[in-house]
Specification:
TIM Barrel; single chain
Length: 268
């Protein structure tokens, strides 16, 4: 059982929903990445998504694009990202970390080299936006051989065939993108999300996390009431953009604490 699978099993036993957070590695400064990861856990995060900076983040809205640009100006690359995970693991052995990014940095490193290095650093899963499940069975199996989970995105426009393929190849959890568009855009229609998740569950037996558009405690609670997890990213990065670096860790911890409290009010 992977660390992600155990986390969801433990939360289900406690009748709690998972809180998944996203930050971009190296933003707002490389030396803040590991402290921010710890602060997110202190604020109530169950699973951490760590974005790998990339020059063409096609699924991201302006907020995360800016985060990537800032990190790239510091020269942050895949080796640095894995180094942050390794440093985080010195104090935290149990919170799962999922790398989220794009195929290019993995291809440059080499698939198996990346997988071996990620496992050694303490990574628990990967979301590769431009790796469709139909085309990366080998990658998924190689991750799972190291007890890491390949996690795939599903969207309002996903066909039944795509959903079945995600059910076949993915593990850990499935990430439902609640909006048509990029990260940080629009408002969530909870009724539509609930109906769509019900149709996904016909094929996908994994926990389903919902992301894109969750901005505050009320939307977090509403979405968590119809899913297994919520994913919040752009709003955290906006918090970092509006906070002096010296106060960054405390700001995200306090912000996340309100989200945690809201979703824990749900009778799972």
């Amino acid at each position: 059982m992977s660390r992600i699978q155990k986390t969801f099993a433990d939360l289900a036993a406690q009748k709690k929903k998972a809180l998944i957070t996203f930050i971009t590695a190296g933003d707002p400064a490389p030396e803040l990445t590991v402290p921010l990861l710890h602060a997110l856990v202190e604020g109530g995060a169950d699973i951490l998504e760590l974005g790998v900076p990339f020059s063409d983040p096609m699924a991201e809205g302006p907020v995360i694009q800016r985060a990537c640009e800032r990190a790239l100006k510091f020269g942050v690359n895949m080796h640095d990202v894995l180094g942050y995970v390794k440093s985080f693991r010195e104090k935290n052995k149990h919170t799962p970390i999922v790398l989220m990014g794009y195929a290019n940095p993995i291809e440059r490193m080499g698939m198996q080299t990346f997988i071996d290095a990620a496992h050694a650093a303490g990574v628990d899963g990967a979301i590769v936006v431009d790796y469709p499940p139909e085309e990366c069975v080998e990658f998924a199996q190689a991750l799972q051989a190291k007890d890491m989970d390949p996690i795939f995105l599903l969207a309002p426009t996903s066909t039944e065939e795509r959903i079945k393929q995600v059910a076949k190849v993915g593990s850990g959890f499935s990430y439902y993108v609640s909006l048509r568009g990029v990260t940080g855009a629009g408002n969530i229609d909870t009724v539509e999300v609930s109906e769509r998740i019900a149709s996904i569950r016909k094929h996908v037996k994994l926990p389903i996390g919902v992301g894109f558009g969750i901005r505050d405690a009320s939307t977090a609670k509403a979405v968590a009431s119809v899913s297994d997890a919520i994913v919040i990213g752009s709003r955290i990065i906006q918090e970092l953009e509006n906070t002096p670096a010296a106060q960054a860790t405390e700001a995200v911890r306090l912000f996340l604490s309100d989200i945690r409290k809201a979703i824990d009010e749900i009778d799972a």
